[in-house]
Amino acid sequence: MVIRHLRDAADALRQALDQEDAKAIQDAQEEFSRAVKEAWQLYENGQLVVEMRGLPRLMYFWAVDELPERIQDPAQWLSLRRELGHFLRVMELSIKPQEVA
User: Fold this and answer.
1) pTM score of the predicted model
2) How far apart are CA 24 and CA 20, in angstroms?
3) Which of 11, 16, 40, 51 is packed most tightly, with the most Cβ within 10 A?
4) Rounded (5°) CA angle 46-88-27
5) Are the C-beta atoms of residues 87 and 33 closer than 8 Å to each other?
6) pLDDT tens digits for 28-40?
């Protein structure tokens, strides 16, 4: 459930970045960061398992600390869209998160 929310929030942010709508980008970024925080909480509580343990922390800090600051600069939107794509690929191919019942 949380992984699906994370993917959906990332997709919404990518779409907002494509449209270059500052308000939509801000709203989508806030939702994406919330989804990452939710996933991080499950990860720390052992309710989310991953194949690579070192990367989730880096990804968390990017999504929660770095992204909200950089998203304020429209000149960075294109690079942030690429980085968001990298985030999703790393999550899918390397980290492979799975929720535990």
Assistant:
1) 0.92
2) 8
3) 16
4) 90
5) no
6) 999 999 999 999 9
